[in-house]
């Protein structure tokens, strides 16, 4: 909710360029180690407080990280959020847990393989210290709860457990098989303990309750709900509503609205499928709810337009409330114009006033109150324009780069090839445009290279499994490597800290 | 590890299983919590079992849900009402868990217990619990708190009452929309316990805050409760405070809010009295009937009859009827279907003249609707209009509609119309039925779809019940029995099905003279499926016919079948013979 104030309170002049420094890497590759396809990161998301970070990979796993530099002992969470951190501190994370969210499946009716790759992760409202998140692959959305659970060590049983198991006919009433077959209904052998069975008034003193001794806990991820069979095409987005009750999921042609608690029905709210599929000219590429207005959502299309719809208007929102698209510059049309116009990602700024969109060549910032054109356009990798033909040949032109905004809305960031990502200042008058490389030395492509010792990474758990950089890209600023693309990145909600994925490695930077 | 005496063994197992690794076993054990409590005795239930359950709060949600439910009826096991307060602790923890259904159940159980607790105990234990939950760090606790105020409030002393009201006011403005939603949906319950003066001041203020909430979902729930809230107020207060809100809501930007108003408007009318209905609610309702969102029109159309019932016929004719005419031509088939399912009910309200003049054309156009659900809905309510204008005026249009539905290419539509045939027969009378519909009933017996053939057989039974055995002998039996010569074995099977249904209705005499010979004849069919169905039918007819007939006709036939080469035929024949023996022995 502070986002709007922060923008207004920004100093009159453009803010200084940020000096980005390396913070951490998870899953760094050792020299020569090959990247396993399943380890490649396919989604990154900070939670609302920035205390947790989740990544999803092509192997269907979700990995959670937690922040370690803010230990909130005795300080209420809300106050903690407002606290100014002492200069020099920056978010540091550690591996928390991981779980297998999706498995490869086969749709027998359509003869279709459904891969386990995580397309999107979204955090939901925390409750009772348990974390909740939505993860989705192409077809199925799952609602996960990650929670500390006590490790049970039971003692003081009435019966010797080892004896009870093999103990003739009565004990067999408690074997799992029998109980499962009955559902929850009481076993037959208990029946004589019904209401007609009389217990002595003081109870039976020889009976004891089991005692749970261990206070150890471990993290358990449980899938609470599965939202399936609602999408004929591939899901590209999920997004939570600010009402804390509903979320949307979007595929190429439709957007559905779900209640978090109800997994067996959803409402179709946008349907762009033409009566005849031959008339199809445009698909939905990304969709997101407004951060505070529960009835507003935006979706982007392959033709480069963003539509904002108002859920209050009608049940099926086929007509948009607002349309944002840039008029085509006359004469500049080429074979690639339409392909590179396709928007791969949109994000609302935290105050909901601005929408950031990424197409193949540019980042565009739109003011929701101005539909004539973007308020700012940033060229991400203009030097690739002459090479569009090559990029088309090797399909790179269809890569879907994500984008993100800083919590204060003053900067935007997005990825490019050769594991590079770019940060632009979008405050009025700002000329900030930084190129960083997802490596331990992010600024080495710049003229001056800040000399700062990289931090020790010995405490990171996944180091062993994940490798170091590909030696092939090391050449300083040389030929761009289309295979090392930085598609996924996320900006910390409250601080200048970026997490980005280079293949299987998660790099974190701060300024 | 102690040794347990043999009779206690099952209960000991039950207790140990409270901590079993298998969730089904734990669930089973929790469901028998009362048995465990009785075995432990009241004293130890209070001192050991309840604390044990309070710590058992990180179990799976299914187990917690069962626990929340069991604890709601646990007062007898802890030693009666004076000890009821010990149950509050485990339920309080359950009120804070993340899973909504567990919290809801825990709140429900707390309400059950609280309503039995003594006044002093409520003040000492229950109210502090409500305050703790309302101040909970996580929204889950605060959500649960909203549902408990109506139990805590009545017995609280004056200062505490003031405090509770102010806490509820804060919950209505909580940061989290979930809490505000809970506050909105529980407001009317709390309002029911609040004194009239505070109701008008504090509660109405909260209501107004909720109705202006940013979140549509909160406003929705505020609307949902306003009819109940309105009934608590004096009619003039209701008109002054609730009515304007409803009128505003009926023009809300969000169709979901208007949808809710359309559903609630009728109930609200009961609270405000006739004058405001005419001046405010009627125009609001007419607007909703003409809403540009189909979902809203569906909700409004579905209430059209109820709304007319509280209006004078003149107002209904003047204001509602024109809308009904528009709705009958609505572009959305679902709107027309919703209208069709209730519009027949308007006939008694409007009276004969208005019905013939105004409603009849609407019925007729809906009966010709291209969407089968619309036609079906009209036909299903035929009895209502028949009472007012008689069937003659309708029958001309009715018949083509029925015939078309009877031959619809969707079998579900055909099935639906079959279900209504007995109702139609009853309304139209024997004469009309014989002329027009009898053929259809026979036609369905040979439908391609099994469900239709089955329903058709059942339909014959219901018709025979309706018109009596004599009629059936004349109009059903001859045609049905002709199927015995059908070349398709599935049709012959349908015949057997029909006979087994008709036999009991038509009685012993007709069964023996007409039905039984056909069945016995069918036992010589070349298809084994027919033969074992014969065995089944014969078995079902044992109770219908006389003992002598059983021995003379049924038994020999079954004996013969019991020597059939087909194993299934033999099986069912033997089953039949066994039930003959049982009947013989018992008589």
TrEMBL record, chain A:
One of its GO terms (molecular function) is protein phosphatase regulator activity. Belongs to the phosphatase 2A regulatory subunit B family. The keyword Membrane does not apply. The keyword Repeat applies. Keywords: Repeat, WD repeat. It comes from Gossypium darwinii (Darwin's cotton). One of its GO terms (cellular component) is protein phosphatase type 2A complex. The B regulatory subunit may modulate substrate selectivity and catalytic activity, and may also direct the localization of the catalytic enzyme to a particular subcellular compartment. This is Serine/threonine-protein phosphatase 2A 55 kDa regulatory subunit B. Gene3D superfamilies: YVTN repeat-like/Quinoprotein amine dehydrogenase. SMART domains: WD40. Signal peptide: none annotated. InterPro entries: PP2A_PR55, PP2A_PR55_CS, WD40/YVTN_repeat-like_dom_sf, WD40_repeat_dom_sf, WD40_rpt. SUPFAM superfamilies: WD40 repeat-like. It comes from the Eukaryota.
From TrEMBL, chain B:
Residues 277-351 form the Phosphatase PP2A regulatory subunit A/Splicing factor 3B subunit 1-like HEAT repeat domain. InterPro entries: ARM-like, ARM-type_fold, HEAT, HEAT_type_2, PP2A/SF3B1-like_HEAT, PP2A_Regulatory_Subunit_A. Keywords: Repeat. Pfam families: HEAT, PPP2R1A-like_HEAT. The keyword Repeat applies. PANTHER family: SERINE/THREONINE-PROTEIN PHOSPHATASE PP2A 65 KDA REGULATORY SUBUNIT, SERINE_THREONINE-PROTEIN PHOSPHATASE 2A 65 KDA REGULATORY SUBUNIT A BETA ISOFORM-RELATED. This is Phosphatase PP2A regulatory subunit A/Splicing factor 3B subunit 1-like HEAT repeat domain-containing protein. It comes from Gossypium tomentosum.
